[in-house]
Amino acid sequence: MPPLPFSFVAGAAGSWRVVAQGAVCGPALPPAARFEIHEGLLQALPDGASWLLRGVTSNERYVTREEKTQLVAKQPGLGRPNATCAALIPIQKSAAWWDLTQDERRAIFEARSRHIEIGLGYLPAVARRLHHSRDLGEPFDFVTYFEYAPEDAAAFEDLVARLRETEEWRFVTREVDIRLER
Amino acid sequence: MPPLPFSFVAGAAGSWRVVAQGAVCGPALPPAARFEIHEGLLQALPDGASWLLRGVTSNERYVTREEKTQLVAKQPGLGRPNATCAALIPIQKSAAWWDLTQDERRAIFEARSRHIEIGLGYLPAVARRLHHSRDLGEPFDFVTYFEYAPEDAAAFEDLVARLRETEEWRFVTREVDIRLER
User: Where are the domains of chain A?
Assistant: First the structure.
């Protein structure tokens, strides 16, 4: 699967209603009422939009074959009819993170922070798509989009709370959490 | 260091003379007489240009701390006055490569192909800058730019020949080799 580009637009229009939006750390994004995901990289903020973020799905950077096999067996696709809740969580990591070598980042990401293992515990309840943004010159390094059913909302809160307690998250310098419903 | 975007333009103008240009595998690029590197991502082919490639320097994807320490100790910068020879080698890898997980790609890249170890043997003679292009939607996945002195030309030929014999290179589906002098 080649990298797929997406644009995330919030403003007056969109099929998702923004039910909460706030900065976990670093600067916030301007408030917005509605949200939409577009295929492709928009070059300019659409009329009436409050903010635009962009990202590209890409090859995985950390998972091993064994982990990928477990993920593929359990992970659901986006767009499930009962998944009427969603979240968009853009994050930026520090220069110190990006100065680490691959083995050092992997050690923090999984050996010490258990990022993949934690995520596996919330499958198939929470569907997830990761987008890479750093090489596009975007303000955030990653944009992760999640979908889940209302009855799994507590599980989703638990997932993000656990990740934010990890050693990996000490390298997060900006994080915005946008909650959506349709 | 944040990712730095560059554009590679060949055509009638440019500070480097194109002395050879050919496809190693896959389709060639249109012929050109001169070559220039521009900072930033050009959005359109400049007037009189034959081709435009784009890429972004980014965090390293494979090297360990031990390898990076060796690289940093030996690798020279670009722009040495005696480095009047250069090469631009864009490559594309197969879908099979990109479907591999991180541990599988690392095993082929270094444990079996010795990509980093081979490259270390040609430092400080050959200066090198790697640009990532795949997530930008470019036709090539990587663009590597090299500079060296005329007396190191034979060593440079040896370097590229050795890399092309590796297991890693079996995943290369398109490669163009452009040689430059100033």
Answer: 5-181
Residues in A closer than 8 angstroms to B3, CB to CB, are 134-135, 137
pTM of the predicted structure, to 2 decimals: 0.95
Answer yes or no: do B68 and A101 touch at CB < 8 A. yes
Rounded CA separation B51/B30 (Å): 7
Q: Establish if A56 touches chain B: CB-CB under 8 angstroms.
A: yes
Tell me the pLDDT tens digit for each residue of B27-61: 999 999 999 999 999 999 999 999 999 999 999 99
Burial state string for A146-178 with b = 16 or more CB within 10 A and e = fewer than 16? bbbbeebeeebeebbebbeebebbebbebbbbb
CATH 3.90.950.10 for domain A5-181, yes or no, is no
Interface of B with A in 64-83 (CB under 8 A): 64-65, 67-68
- Rounded to a whole number of angstroms, the distance from the CA of A1 to the nearest CA of chain B is 7
ipTM of the complex: 0.93
Contact partners, residue A151, CB within 8 Å, separation at least 6: none
